[in-house]
């Protein structure tokens, strides 16, 4: 009881910090592209600016994680990263040419992307100390994303998209203030064992898994990069775009909770086939709809596509990879799911969207998802893997 009472203020500040930090991700992922469009950039240029983020995250996450380990602090690194974001947002607000913004946003991403894995790290450490569920802390990130999505939409509708960077600074300053009240933790994340990469890549099962993940991620990252542009082209206002972000963010919350409790009752491969099929249907409908309200409806499929896939993929990955190489395997998964796919989808997707149109853009995204679905289905139907069951705690 005493331990629980000590935990309450610390957990409250951490939840508030997590809630606010994910509000900044709404701006970068959803409203920054609209800001670039307002500056007159082409879809190809916007796609390139989007692709810079995953490229920078490849080494920025590792560098700042190593720095956190070296100096045995997470809180101070988070404060430094948030200050860096604020400074670079000021620089971006004073820039209007593509070349200057490309350099500035590259430096901004260097401070932006590492915040999220470090936030998860400090949340995991805190949850373990007080015997709490990590999900019940992390879920405040999803709630923050959903809340800021709708609030920012209405704010920018009222004051104009030219104030996007000013709104970003306000939210980042709020996150910085909260960061002073969270308790510091020593980074406990296992080091990536580069010597184990070859051992992992020799496993055909994992190569197949990463291939399917990469195909699925390409479609999702294409949608992430150009969802707001699609809505804008169809005449959606900023507040309506906020509702589209809210629709996707809120649907993943119940799915995460359900699968964290009951997910072990279902086999991984059928769930992955189902999720990939839902992605396929989702992108087909995205290409067919000609109404921003239709897109909001389609975004409601986010939970049964992304939510089901992500929880199940992490669960399967932890069972396929030996404990000694798990950190390495998770790093490779992140590269496939986020970094490499984001880089390719931003550059290739931008040109495709600009020269082939929105419908063909989403048909290509659908094709990638269908290919992943066939890959998971073929493994399940014809080459069922033998996976040794291990006790996996999805709450930590």
Short summary of the structure?
It is found in: Cell inner membrane. With 396 residues, the chain is mainly α.
Can you give a write-up of this model?
The model is unreliable at 384-396 (pLDDT under 50). 81% of the residues lie in helices and 0% in strands. The longest helix has 37 residues, at 2-38. The chain folds into 2 domains: 1-189, Growth Hormone, Chain: A; 192-396, MFS general substrate transporter like domains (Growth Hormone, Chain: A). α1 (2-38) runs antiparallel to α5 (115-129) and α2 (43-71) runs parallel beside α4. The protein is globular and about 55 Å long. It has helices at residues 2-38, 43-71, 75-93, 98-112, 115-129, 135-159, 164-179, 197-201, 204-233, 238-262, 268-288, 292-299, 302-320, 326-356, 358-382. By secondary structure, it is an all-alpha fold. Keywords: Cell inner membrane, Cell membrane, Membrane, Transmembrane, Transmembrane helix, Transport. It comes from Paenibacillus anaericanus.
């Amino acid at each position: 009881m005493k331990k629980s009472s000590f935990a309450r203020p610390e957990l409250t500040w951490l939840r508030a910090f997590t809630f606010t930090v994910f509000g900044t991700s709404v701006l970068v992922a959803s409203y920054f592209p609209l800001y670039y469009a307002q500056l007159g950039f082409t879809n190809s240029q916007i796609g390139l600016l989007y692709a810079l983020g995953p490229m920078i995250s490849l080494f920025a996450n590792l560098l700042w994680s190593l720095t956190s380990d070296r100096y045995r602090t997470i809180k101070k690194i988070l404060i430094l990263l948030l200050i860096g974001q604020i400074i670079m947002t000021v620089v971006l607000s004073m820039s209007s040419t593509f070349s200057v913004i490309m350099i500035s946003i590259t430096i901004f991403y260097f401070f932006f992307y590492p915040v999220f894995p470090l936030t998860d790290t400090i949340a995991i450490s805190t949850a373990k100390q007080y015997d709490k569920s990590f999900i019940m802390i992390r879920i405040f990130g999803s709630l923050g994303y959903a809340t800021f999505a709708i609030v920012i939409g209405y704010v920018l509708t009222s004051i104009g998209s030219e104030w996007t960077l000013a709104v970003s600074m306000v939210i980042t300053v709020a996150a910085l203030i909260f960061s002073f009240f969270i308790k510091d933790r020593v980074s406990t994340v296992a080091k990536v064992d580069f010597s184990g990469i070859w051992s992992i890549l020799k496993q055909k099962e994992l190569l197949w898994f990463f291939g399917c993940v990469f195909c699925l991620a390409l479609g999702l990252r294409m949608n992430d990069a150009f969802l707001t542009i699609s809505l804008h082209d169809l005449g959606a206002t900023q507040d309506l775009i906020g509702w589209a972000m809210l629709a996707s963010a809120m649907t993943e919350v119940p799915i995460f909770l359900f699968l964290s409790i009951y997910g072990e009752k279902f086999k991984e491969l059928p769930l992955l086939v189902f999720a990939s099929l839902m992605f396929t249907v989702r992108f087909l409908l995205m290409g067919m709809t000609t109404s921003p309200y239709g897109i909001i409806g389609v975004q409601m499929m986010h939970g049964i596509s992304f939510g089901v896939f992500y929880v199940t993929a992490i669960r399967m990955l932890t069972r396929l990879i030996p404990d000694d190489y798990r950190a390495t395997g998770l790093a490779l998964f992140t590269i496939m799911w986020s970094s490499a796919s984001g880089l390719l989808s931003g550059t290739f997707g931008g040109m495709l969207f600009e020269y082939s149109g929105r419908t063909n853009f989403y048909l290509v995204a659908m094709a990638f998802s269908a290919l992943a679905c066939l890959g998971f289905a073929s493994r399940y139907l014809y080459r069922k893997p033998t996976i040794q069951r291990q006790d996996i705690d999805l709450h930590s």
